[in-house]
Write a structure and sequence with these properties.
The complex is a heterodimer of chains A (about 160) and B (about 270).
Chain A: H1 3-23, H2 28-31, H3 37-48, H4 55-69, H5 75-96, H6 99-124, H7 135-156
Helix pairs in contact in A: 1-3, 3-4, 3-5, 3-7, 4-5, 5-6, 6-7
Chain B: H1 2-5, H2 10-41, H3 44-82, E1 91-98, E2 108-111, E3 124-126, E4 131-138, E5 143-147, E6 154-159, E7 165-170, E8 177-178, E9 182-183, E10 193-196, E11 208-216, E12 223-230, E13 239-244, H4 246-254
Antiparallel strand pairs in B: 1-2, 1-13, 2-5, 3-4, 3-13, 4-5, 6-7, 6-10, 7-8, 8-12, 9-12, 10-11, 11-12
Classes of the chains: A mainly alpha (about 160), B alpha+beta (about 270).
Chain lengths: ~160, ~270
């Protein structure tokens, strides 16, 4: 398979899984812990492949997420595009950072996304008030090492495109 | 975003919703498989027992329907005297819930029937036990239903015992409704059945909505705190009935251009 099409396949597959995880039916207690997997995928791809996966792709993925979760079209798109911009801007520095600093960056990005989404929701409807709204930012940081581990495994396996 | 808020890019929305439909189905499949497996593996004796119970219930319900038909006739006849006859002819469509969580803090559910079946925004959604919610967004293959317990939802109700009108507002708990703005000396008590009053023109009148569980006067506040539990177990439903009532179809015909926007029909509260 051509390396580019193989990479595209991986990107699409990862986003399909991320979106499925995003809307998976969990008990209400666990549902508030479910991190924003799509944003984590956006973060990963825009750090690993900043020249191929950039702001525009993040915007498209955000639009799909909006449709998926029944939000106003464009709010996830806007937020994901901003996060992708920061990733593309700082990816060289982030790659040499130790893991703790990377985690801090991921946490800041997730928190920013939650904050912006909160603001958009508050603009047009009843905003979500409970403190549990902010939990996905924390659990998302815990999800980041898992994503890195899966990515490592993928790179070492025979299917790798590099 | 603004364009979507005013419902001007619905074509784009439907294209996107078709793109994400496979993902929604993918999440639903494991639940579906476990259910079918469970149905196949249930034992013969249990099926026979269940069959017997259902037959008994069917006989009982049939007998009640006979009585109901007679009462409906009588009701129509009496209303004809009063010169304000109304039709009860309601058309329903059974839709199955897709087991996905759209957003944890909102009570939105997704069902597997969409505008291909003629569903439109603002339709009331019922179940066998009572009122479930209303349709807020429709795409070709799926539609989103706002449950009555969502914090942005309000439904005009009436106490079945004495006809007192009120509004039941969701407060974010899946098994609770609040009935605000009732004076402290109001005649309402735990166990009272709240039925839809039909005032907001969205829900048909007379369907059970909730049962009052707590009434506590708050002398300092001026209004009593009244809590009710929805008649439908909203966290356990699998199938819902999407209904076409006279009220909704008339509304749909009268203002076809108002229908695509979700926000005009989202809260249906009128002054009691």
């Amino acid at each position: 398979m051509h390396p580019n099409s193989s990479a595209l396949l991986w990107v699409l597959l990862s986003f399909a899984i991320a979106m499925a995880l995003r809307i998976i039916s969990l008990p209400p207690l666990l549902a508030s812990f479910n991190p924003d997997w799509v944003l984590l995928a956006v973060l990963y791809w825009s750090l690993v492949q900043p020249d191929r996966f950039g702001v525009a792709s993040a915007w498209v993925m955000g639009l799909l997420t909006d449709s998926l979760t029944g939000r106003l079209l464009g709010q996830h798109a806007f937020v994901y595009a901003i996060v992708a911009y920061f990733c593309v801007r700082f990816y060289l520095r982030l790659r040499v950072f130790p893991i703790t600093q990377q985690l801090a960056f991921v946490f800041l990005c997730l928190l920013l996304s939650r904050f912006l989404l909160f603001w958009f929701e508050a603009l047009h409807s009843h905003p979500p008030l409970s403190w549990q709204y902010w939990l996905p930012a924390l659990t998302g940081v815990l999800g980041w090492p898992i994503i890195l581990a899966i990515a490592n495994w993928r790179r070492q396996s025979a299917w790798s495109f590099k | 975003m603004v364009a979507d808020h005013y419902g001007q890019i619905n074509p784009l929305r439907s294209v996107l919703s078709i793109l994400v439909y496979p993902v929604q189905l993918l999440v639903h499949i494991p639940v579906d498989i476990s259910e079918t497996l469970g149905a196949h593996l249930s034992s013969r004796s249990r099926l026979l027992k269940e069959n017997k119970l259902l037959r008994e219930e069917n006989t009982r319900l049939k007998q009640r329907t006979l009585k109901y038909e007679a009462l409906e006739k009588e009701n129509m006849r009496l209303r004809a005297f009063l010169d304000n006859s109304f039709k009860l002819g309601e058309n329903v469509l059974v839709a199955e819930l897709l087991s996905v969580t759209l957003v944890p803090y909102e009570h939105l559910v997704l069902v597997d029937k969409g505008s291909r079946f003629g569903i439109h925004v603002g339709q009331p959604v019922l179940s066998a036990e009572g009122v479930v919610g209303q349709v807020v967004r429709v795409s070709p293959l799926t539609s989103e239903i706002l449950l009555i317990t969502d914090p942005s939802h309000a439904i005009p109700v009436q106490v079945n015992r004495n006809g007192l009108r009120a509004i039941a507002v969701g407060n974010g708990e899946i098994d609770q409704l609040e009935v605000p703005n009732l004076p402290n000396n109001v005649d309402i008590k735990p166990g009272d059945l709240l039925v839809s009053s039909g005032l907001g023109q969205v829900f048909p009148p007379g369907y059970p909505v909730a049962e009052v569980v707590e009434v506590s006067p708050q002398p300092a506040r001026g209004f009593a705190k009244v809590l009710a539990r929805p008649k439908v177990p909203l966290d356990r439903i699998r199938e819902v009935l999407i209904t076409w009532t006279d009220a909704t179809s008339k509304q749909f015909l009268a203002h076809p251009e108002d229908q695509p926007t979700t926000h005009t029909t989202r809260t249906t509260g009128n002054a009691p």
